[in-house]
Design goal:
The chain is α+β, with helices and mostly antiparallel strands and 287 residues long. It contains ten helices and four strands, in the order ααβαβααβαβαααα.
Length: 287
Amino acid sequence: MIFKTTWKNIRRSPYQAFAAILIMTLTFLVVSFFTFVLIGSSKVINYFESKPTLTAFFRNEVKQEDINSLENNIKKTGKVATVKFVSKQEALKIYRQQNKNDPLLLDLVTEDILPASLEISAIKIEDLSTIHAALKSSPIVSEIIYQKDVVSALTSWTNALRKIGIGLIIVLALVSIFIMVTIIGIKISQKKEDIEIMRLIGASGWYIRWPFVWEGIFYGIAGAVLGFGIATSSIWYATPFLSSFLKGIPIFPISLIFLLQLLAVELAIAIILGAFSSFLSVLRYLK
């Protein structure tokens, strides 16, 4: 009976129902998009963390014992994920592979010209500056290639996106609550005579309130499903372009389990948001 009354209330005011579902859809569309962006950004940062983001080149006259000593000292810091030594011979092989289609460049470079190096990746991106400082102070290191700008930009963008996303979600959630309270309040005002009759024949307060609470929950669930569906469809549609743009970075395909978990979380939030908005409205208008 309660669900039948709820559905009747929704059908009798389609424009108000559309407005409530629309604002909920916008809220969960933003939630879904920012979740995808933050998860993707985290994977990009993890990818760069796992790669040799710092390369130290050694002087030609350096001894292997000195290189081994420096490598051990770097490992002892506890901030290094991987360290790979690249000898002169290996450096020449890599150079030849990269320039195999240009014979002139191959003839110009010999093993003696190319320096040995250490390729280092950190456990955390923030630790790269410490490792860089330790290598820079070593007399056997001639040059260091440090992707500081790329790493710093990625971290800054991720932190900024997180703050913007959280702020926008909070604003939209508050707007959703305000609109839902207003819409449910209008519906209660329109049914004052029916409510008075129900009270006269002995209907309990919660028997009168529950249809409005379930109506708010319906709006929340509908908005969450639509917002999630639009965001997921957009990501799937853009996957070929994004995969090409982020070539080599393992972001796609998005796990089905992750999508189901995200949908479950959004539905739970939608139920809480819808029920809370409706509860505020019935408390205000059904005293």
